[in-house]
Design brief:
about 725 residues; Beta-Lactamase; six-stranded antiparallel β-sheet; 22 helices; 22 strands; about 50% helix; binds flavin mononucleotide
Length: about 725
C-alpha cells in the first residue's frame, strides 16, 4: 500500500516536474491535467488550459487527423501536428499518445517540440542541456523573425501539402490572419480563388525544382481586400542535402504597384490626349482611372458654364442616373453642395458626412438613396484663374483618407485640365485651319486666274511672234536711243543759251536744274536740285511765293508765259506741265530766258516809234495847215478872176482893177507862204532865225474883211 502510495506520489512528482510536456485528456482532447513543461511550452496557466480542448491549440488543418488519432489509440500512437502557443508562435509538435488501461476515455500525450522533421528538441530529461542551448538559439532566431518587417513563413517541404509551420507577426499584420488560422495551411489560401496568375506557373516550377524564386502575386487579406504580394521563396536543405523547408518572405508592394499602375494610367491618358481622341472619351477614361484608384468611390467631371454659373456633367459613367439627373445643371454658390461650393470658392471641398452637411440639403435625399455618404470636390482652374471644371469623388464610406489620394486627384485634375485645354486649342486650330483653307482656295483661284492670264499673254506673245531676244534688242536700241536723247537733252539743257531749265515736282521741289545762265548768276546746280524752294536762300520770300503760284498753276495744266526781273536782268518765263506714263501731271517744266538785251532793243525801238508817230502827226498837221494857208489866197484869186470875167463891160474898170489888185496881193501872199514852206526845212535844221518886223494889223484885217465880203457874195 505504502509502496502504492509512494508510487502515486512519486508518479505525481514525476508527472509534475518531467522535462517532457505531458498532458492527460479525454478522447475529445479536453485537457484534464497538464504538467509544468506542457504549461511552459504553451505559455498558459493551469486554469487557462485545463478544461480546454487540445485541438483548439492545434492548427485547423491538423485537427481532424488528431481527433481521429485520439479515437484510435491502441497502446501507443504517434502523431505530428502543428500547434501554437498563447503568444501565437507556432509549435511543431510530436505527440506520443498513450492509452490508459481500463480508462478507455483517457489518454496521456507526451508532447515534444520538433524541428519540423521529427527530431525532437526535448525528448528526454537527459537531453535537457542540449535542448536548452538549442532552445536559446531558436529563441534568438524567433525573436529576429518576429521583429522582421516583412511577412515570413516557413513551410514544411517534406509534407507534399507544404503546410505553414511558422508565420511571423508581420505576416499577420499584412494579411489580417492570426497565426492559429494559417498554421498547417498551404499558402494558396491567400489567393482567394484568384488562380489565373502567370506568376504561379513559375512558382510551381521553382517549388518542384527546390530552387529560389521571386514573384509578385495578387493576394487577398482576411477582409477580402486585394494586395500585391512580392513573394520570395528560398529552399532549406539538411546536412544530407535533403530539401526540408521553404522559407517564404512576403512584401506588400501594393503601393509601388499602384504607383506603377497610376503611371501606366497617366501614360494611357496622355496617349489619348496626344492622339486627339474626343474629349468625352478622355474624360470618361480619367473618371475610370480615378475610380480604380479610389476604392468604393464614383468619380464625376462637371463642366462649368461660365455665363450661367451652372455645372454640367461631362463624364460620370458610374454615377446612378437618378443622382446624376438631380445634380445636373446645379448653380454654383456658397451653399450649393460640394462641387457647387468648390467651383464657387475655387477651393477643394470635402464633406465627410453629407447626411449632416447643411449645403447638401437639396441633394441629400437623392445621395442617400444612392448610397453616397461622403463627397470630395476639387476645382480645376485655368491659367487666367477661371474654374473650368470640377472633379468630384462620391464615396460609399465616410472614411476616405484624403491625404493618401490627394496626389492622385491632383494628377488626374491636371490631366483633365490638359485634355480640356487641348480640346479648346484643337477647336481653335480647326477654325484657323478652315480659314487658311479658305484663303488657300482663294489664293489658288487667283493663281489659276493669273496662270490663265499668263497663258493668254504667252499665247499672245507667241502669236505676235515677238521673241524675247527681239524684245531685248528692241529694248536695248530704245535704251540707247533714250540715252542718246537724254545726253542730247542734257547737252541742250546745259548749253541752253542765256537761260535756265527747271523741272519742279508736285512738292514744288526742283528736281532738275540746268542751263548756261546758272553760271552767270553764280548759282550751282547741286545747291538747287532736290531742294524745296523755301530751302533755297538765294530767293526772297516774295520771289518764292510768286514762283510757287506759277508752279501750282502749271501743275494744274496751265501754260504760263511771264517775265521777271532778277539780279538786274529780265527773264522771260515759259512753263508747261509734264505728264507721266499714265497721263497724270507730275512735273512742271519752267524755261527762264535772259531777255535783257532784247528788252533794251525793244525799248529803243519803242522810243523811235513814238517819235516817228509824233513826226507824222506834225506833218499831217502841217499839210492841213499848209493846204488851208494856200486855199485862202487861191480861193480869193479864183473869186476875183471870176468877178473880173463877169464885169467886163465898160464902166466897171475900177472894179476890175480892184480885183486885179486883189489877185496880185494874193499871189504875193502865196509867194510868201511858199517861201515860208520852203524855208521850213531850214527852220527844222535851225537855220532860220527870228527877225523883228513891222506888221500892219489894221490893213491886214481890212484885207481879210474884204475877202470875206467877196466870198460872201459868191
Ligand atoms: C515558402 C512558401 C511561401 C509561399 N507563400 C505564398 C504566399 O504568400 N501567397 C501565395 O499566394 N502563395 C504562396 N506560396 C505558394 C503556394 O503555396 C503554392 O505553392 C502556389 O499556389 C502554387 O501551387 P498550387 O498550384 O498547388 O496552388 C508559397 C509557397 C511557399 C513554398
Amino acid at each position: 500500500m505504502i509502496a502504492q502510495i509512494k508510487d502515486t506520489v512519486v508518479l505525481k512528482r514525476f508527472f509534475e516536474y518531467a522535462a517532457e510536456a505531458v498532458v492527460v485528456m479525454d478522447t475529445n482532447s479536453i485537457i484534464l491535467k497538464a504538467n509544468r513543461s506542457f504549461l511552459c511550452l504553451f505559455g498558459y496557466r493551469p486554469d487557462e488550459i485545463v478544461g480546454q480542448k487540445l485541438v483548439n491549440h492545434i492548427v485547423k488543418a491538423n485537427r481532424k487527423k488528431l481527433l481521429a488519432d485520439l479515437q484510435n489509440v491502441n497502446g501507443e500512437t504517434n502523431s505530428r501536428v502543428l500547434g501554437y502557443s498563447k503568444d501565437g508562435s507556432s509549435l511543431a509538435l510530436q505527440l506520443k499518445l498513450v492509452s490508459v488501461p481500463q480508462e478507455p476515455d483517457l489518454l496521456i500525450a507526451f508532447v515534444n517540440q520538433t524541428d519540423g522533421h521529427g527530431d525532437t528538441t526535448t525528448t528526454t530529461a537527459q537531453s535537457i542541456t542540449k535542448a536548452t542551448s538549442a532552445q536559446n538559439s531558436m529563441d534568438i532566431h524567433k525573436k529576429a523573425l518576429n521583429a522582421a518587417g516583412n511577412g515570413i513563413l516557413i513551410v514544411d517541404a517534406q509534407d507534399p501539402q507544404l503546410p505553414i509551420i511558422f508565420s511571423n507577426p508581420a505576416f499577420g499584420h499584412m494579411t489580417g490572419y492570426r497565426n492559429s488560422e494559417v498554421l498547417g495551411l498551404n499558402c494558396r489560401f491567400l489567393q482567394n480563388g484568384d488562380r489565373d496568375q502567370p506568376a504561379l506557373k513559375r512558382l510551381r516550377k521553382a517549388i518542384k525544382k527546390g530552387v529560389d524564386c521571386k514573384v509578385i502575386l495578387r493576394n487577398y487579406r482576411k477582409d477580402g481586400s486585394m494586395f500585391w504580394n512580392e513573394l520570395t521563396i528560398t529552399p532549406v536543405h539538411d546536412q544530407e542535402q535533403n530539401l526540408t523547408h521553404f522559407i517564404g518572405v512576403q512584401h506588400d508592394v501594393t503601393k509601388e504597384k499602384k504607383a506603377l499602375q497610376l503611371q501606366g494610367d497617366i501614360r494611357s491618358i496622355l496617349e489619348k490626349i496626344a492622339l486627339d481622341q474626343p474629349l468625352k472619351t478622355i474624360t470618361k477614361h480619367i473618371v475610370r482611372v480615378a475610380e480604380a484608384h479610389f476604392n468604393g468611390c464614383m468619380a464625376s467631371i462637371s463642366l462649368l458654364n461660365q455665363k450661367m454659373g451652372t455645372l454640367h456633367q461631362m463624364a460620370a459613367p458610374s454615377l446612378p442616373k437618378a443622382f446624376s439627373k438631380a445634380v445636373e445643371g446645379m448653380a454654383i454658390g456658397p451653399e450649393a453642395c460640394s462641387c457647387g461650393v468648390s467651383a464657387y470658392s475655387k477651393s477643394e471641398v470635402f464633406v465627410p458626412d453629407l447626411a449632416t452637411d447643411p449645403n447638401w440639403k437639396d441633394y441629400r435625399e437623392s445621395a442617400i438613396e444612392n448610397h453616397i455618404k461622403s463627397c470630395w470636390s476639387m476645382p480645376i482652374i485655368s491659367n487666367n484663374q477661371e474654374v473650368i471644371v470640377t472633379f468630384t469623388m462620391y464615396c460609399e464610406s465616410s472614411n476616405v483618407t484624403l491625404k493618401a489620394y490627394r496626389e492622385i486627384m491632383a494628377d488626374l485634375s491636371q490631366l483633365t485640365a490638359l485634355a480640356i485645354n487641348q480640346h479648346r486649342i484643337r477647336i481653335e486650330l480647326e477654325a484657323s485651319r478652315r480659314k487658311i483653307e479658305k484663303y488657300a482656295q482663294t489664293l489658288e483661284d487667283k493663281v489659276q486666274a493669273r496662270t490663265g492670264e499668263l497663258k493668254a499673254t504667252v499665247q499672245q506673245l507667241v502669236e505676235s511672234n515677238l521673241s524675247l531676244e527681239d524684245q531685248i534688242k528692241e529694248t536695248m536700241i530704245a535704251e540707247k536711243k533714250a540715252q542718246r536723247s537724254q545726253a542730247l537733252f542734257s547737252a541742250i539743257a546745259q548749253n541752253f543759251p542765256k537761260g535756265i531749265i527747271v523741272v519742279f515736282n508736285e512738292n514744288i521741289e526742283m528736281v532738275y536744274v540746268e542751263g548756261e545762265e546758272l553760271g552767270r548768276l553764280d548759282l550751282k546746280k547741286q545747291e538747287l536740285e532736290g531742294k524745296r524752294l523755301t530751302d533755297i536762300p538765294v530767293f526772297s520770300k516774295n520771289q518764292i511765293e510768286n514762283i510757287q503760284v506759277l508752279v501750282r498753276q502749271t501743275l494744274k495744266g496751265k501754260h504760263i508765259s511771264d517775265e521777271i526781273t532778277y539780279n538786274g536782268n529780265v527773264y522771260s518765263i515759259n512753263s508747261t506741265p509734264l505728264y507721266s506714263d499714265d497721263n497724270n501731271i507730275v512735273w512742271a517744266l519752267f524755261v527762264y530766258s535772259n531777255i535783257t538785251d532784247q528788252k533794251m532793243v525793244q525799248n529803243e525801238l519803242l522810243k523811235a516809234l513814238i517819235s516817228e508817230r509824233e513826226l507824222n502827226e506834225l506833218k499831217s498837221r502841217f499839210i492841213s495847215m499848209a493846204s488851208h494857208e494856200f486855199r485862202t489866197p487861191l480861193s480869193a484869186i479864183l473869186s476875183s478872176a471870176i468877178l473880173i470875167g463877169k464885169q467886163n463891160e465898160p464902166g466897171k474898170e475900177e472894179r476890175r482893177e480892184k480885183h486885179v489888185t486883189r489877185i496880185k496881193a494874193n499871189v504875193k501872199n502865196l509867194v510868201v507862204i511858199l517861201n515860208d514852206f520852203l524855208s521850213l526845212s531850214k527852220l527844222e535844221e535851225g537855220k532860220v532865225l527870228p527877225k523883228q518886223e513891222y506888221f500892219d494889223l489894221t490893213a491886214y484885217i481890212k484885207t481879210l474883211l474884204e475877202e470875206m465880203e467877196i466870198n460872201k457874195k459868191e
